[in-house]
């Protein structure tokens, strides 16, 4: 998955040039992948377990990045161990918030972001410089006026988290903030990444050069030239790092090829793909001879390589690119929505965000939410920038 390096919004799997939320120019996906794979094991080696030692002073629970959400693309901190009562309370709070949120979608109008429902109606009026996706009842938001006019960076005050009623639950104070995942959110403060809980309290203190959201109990992190995965107590578990864990597997590189490891760092699918994405709904996108298809958890091709790019499955459909246009395929590889979009996101809550080329204007970017038939539910214009 690709994320905007400016606002953290999730992008299409590959080749997106501009952020669908803020319009910023995106770094090539290859550069993002390279960063998470800069450390590679020796030929024939198994990723090394780092054991259970702690990093500096690291507390008990962990948080998730997301962008990112990041991430958003991605972060950590320490406050001591959380008691059982506190952990249970936080989990209950998160569940209640998620139920209350329903399904809301970030959208932009008049240069400001807010939230619409599945019918395309405004629920939280456009008023923010950036609005992230809701996850576990909360969404990372950047208040209006908190975005630098030249480089789109967050000004002092920064990101906070709203509930579905548009009320601040965690006051703005972070320079970066990702979606909540598994009870934690990866945030950046003073150039370091750490993790907070749903009450905004540090669970893993900010200390990482880079980090991503938790998934399957593990999160990718970088510190002092090392890359790997930490657990929810901030302990290093696997070295080096690769893709995010999903359905018990994460992509990892070996000798210039990509395969998959499990949560113990053992190779499950040997590294012989040119590139590979996250598993979702039992399948993962993978590249061979310059074309993308989908494999199962045994590494067998289910959909033969035939696409120029491909994203994870979500709600039974996956964005795929052919001849420079994106559409949506089913689990058999058949087109359900024909290729027609410059960019396309995964479906979430019955809708998917796409870029509509026919409505684009000079200096702007026309975006839309579509349903699974390709019907436009909502459309709007985002600014295009560098």
Tell me what you see in this structure:
The protein has 386 residues and is mainly β. The protein has helices at residues 29-36, 84-101, and strands at residues 2-3, 10-11, 48-49, 105-109, 112-116, 122-135, 138-143, 159-162, 168-174, 176-181, 184-189, 192-196, 202-208, 210-211, 219-223, 226-230, 236-239, 249-254, 257-262, 267-273, 275-280, 283-288, 291-295, 301-307, 309-310, 318-322, 325-329, 335-341, 352-355, 364-370, 376-383. The chain has 2 helices and 31 strands. Strand 22 and strand 23 form a beta hairpin. The strands form 8 sheets. It has a 6-stranded antiparallel β-sheet with strand order 4-5-6-7-8-9. The chain has a 5-stranded antiparallel β-sheet with strand order 3-17-16-15-14, with no helix packed on it. The chain has 2 domains: 37-243, no CATH class; 275-386, no CATH class. Mean pLDDT is 78; it is low at 5-18, 20-25, 27-89 and 91-101.
Key descriptive features of the protein:
386 residues; 7% helix; mainly beta; six-stranded antiparallel beta sheet; 2 domains; 31 strands
Tell the overall outline.
flat
Low-confidence stretches: 5-18, 20-25, 27-89, 91-101
What integer is the average pLDDT? 78
| Fraction in helix | under 10%
Distance between the termini: 21 Å
- Number of discrete helical segments: 2
Number of strands: 31
Estimated structural class: mainly beta
How would you summarize this macromolecular structure in one to three sentences?
With about 375 residues, the protein is mostly beta strands. The chain has 2 domains: about 35-245, no CATH class; about 275-385, no CATH class.
């Amino acid at each position: 998955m690709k994320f905007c390096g400016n606002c953290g919004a999730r992008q299409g799997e590959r080749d997106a040039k501009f952020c669908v939320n803020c319009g910023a120019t995106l770094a090539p996906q290859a550069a993002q992948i390279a960063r998470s794979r800069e450390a590679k094991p020796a030929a024939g080696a198994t990723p090394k377990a780092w054991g259970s030692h702690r990093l500096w002073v690291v507390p008990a629970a962990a948080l998730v990045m997301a962008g990112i959400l990041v991430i958003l693309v991605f972060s950590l901190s320490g406050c001591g161990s959380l008691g059982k009562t506190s952990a249970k309370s936080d989990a209950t709070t998160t569940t209640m918030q998620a139920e209350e949120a329903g399904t809301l979608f970030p959208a932009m109008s008049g240069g400001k972001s807010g939230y619409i429902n599945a019918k395309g109606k405004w629920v939280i009026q456009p008023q923010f410089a950036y609005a992230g996706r809701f996850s576990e009842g909360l969404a990372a938001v950047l208040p209006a006026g908190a975005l630098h006019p030249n480089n789109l960076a967050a000004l002092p005050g920064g990101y906070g988290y709203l509930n579905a009623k548009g009320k601040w639950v965690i006051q703005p104070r972070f320079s970066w903030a990702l979606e909540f995942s598994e009870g934690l959110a990866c945030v950046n403060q003073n150039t370091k990444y750490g993790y907070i809980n749903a009450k905004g309290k540090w669970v893993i203190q900010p200390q990482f050069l880079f980090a991503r959201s938790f998934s399957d109990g593990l999160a990718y992190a970088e510190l002092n030239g090392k890359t790997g995965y930490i657990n929810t107590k901030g302990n290093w578990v696997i070295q080096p790092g690769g893709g995010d864990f999903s359905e018990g597997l994460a992509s990892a590189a070996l000798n210039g090829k990509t395969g998959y490891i499990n949560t113990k760092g053992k190779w499950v699918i040997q590294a012989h793909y040119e590139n590979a994405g996250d598993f979702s709904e039992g399948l993962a996108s993978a590249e061979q001879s310059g074309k993308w298809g989908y494999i199962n958890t045994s590494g067998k091709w289910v959909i033969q390589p035939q696409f120029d790019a491909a994203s994870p499955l979500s709600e039974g459909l996956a964005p795929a690119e052919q001849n420079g246009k994106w559409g949506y395929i089913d689990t058999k590889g058949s087109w359900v929505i024909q290729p027609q979009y410059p960019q396309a996101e995964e479906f979430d809550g019955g809708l998917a965000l796409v870029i509509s080329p026919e409505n684009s204007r000079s200096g702007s970017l026309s975006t839309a939410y579509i349903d699974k038939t390709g019907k436009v539910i909502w459309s709007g214009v985002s600014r295009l920038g560098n």
